[in-house]
Amino acid sequence: MKTTSIMIVGVGGQGSLLASKLLGNLLTEEGYDVKVSEVHGMSQRGGSVVTYVRYGDRVYSPIVTEGECDFIISFEKLEGARYAGCLRKGGKIIVNTQQIDPMPVITGAAEYPENVLEELKARGFDIDDFDALTPALEAGSAKSVNIVLMGHFARHSGIPKEKWLAALEKTVPARFLEMNRKAFDLGYGE
């Protein structure tokens, strides 16, 4: 099997590291060789956070190079645009339409770009964009956007939902499991 490369991108505090841990646990249980690498940036100040997850029969490096990524799972639309160049031809960006202003926008030094996703679509990128915040709130917390997105991605993964839920149970603390199970179901489309 060829190596599949996934980037999980977002803003510090959105739970991208938990999402990558869930994905890594699931893929390991499926018997793949899995490599996960985290790049934190200014994550504690709302900065960009990137996690690379690569899996296959044999994976030699966790790093995804430009033009090599099969999927980008973006927790925020500007972050999806920031890393779109890493996508391979035929790859897909799954993106939460939520807007989180980066520090330069907050301080007034820059403006949040308009029509970010429309521009990516016009350039030929395959974008699966949807509002992950509303179902996260329905599940019980805005912090479950990460699990809503993983539920949405699960449909593209080729791995049965039951196995995702088993991995979720092993990854998420018990006190948050019910909320995260609901978030996953809502993202999956139930």
Key words describing this protein structure:
globular; 24% strand; 190 residues; Pyruvate-ferredoxin Oxidoreductase, domain 3; alpha/beta; six-stranded mixed sheet
Describe this protein's structure.
With 190 residues, this protein is α/β, with parallel strands linked by helices. The chain has a single domain (4-188), classed as Pyruvate-ferredoxin Oxidoreductase, domain 3. 41% of the residues lie in helices and 24% in strands. It has 8 helices and 6 strands, in the order E-H-E-E-E-H-E-H-H-E-H-H-H-H. A 6-stranded mixed β-sheet has the order 2-3-1-4-5-6, with helices on both faces. A hairpin with an 8-residue loop joins strand 2 (33-39) and strand 3 (48-56). The chain starts with a strand and ends with a helix.
Q: Topology, pairings included?
A:
Elements: E1 4-11, H1 16-29, E2 33-39, E3 48-56, E4 69-74, H2 77-82, E5 87-96, H3 103-106, H4 116-122, E6 126-130, H5 133-139, H6 145-157, H7 161-171, H8 174-188
Parallel strand pairs: 1-4, 4-5, 5-6
Antiparallel strand pairs: 1-3, 2-3
Helix pairs in contact: 1-7, 5-6, 5-8, 6-8
Short description:
Helices cover 41% and strands 24% of the residues. With 190 residues, the protein is of the alpha/beta class.
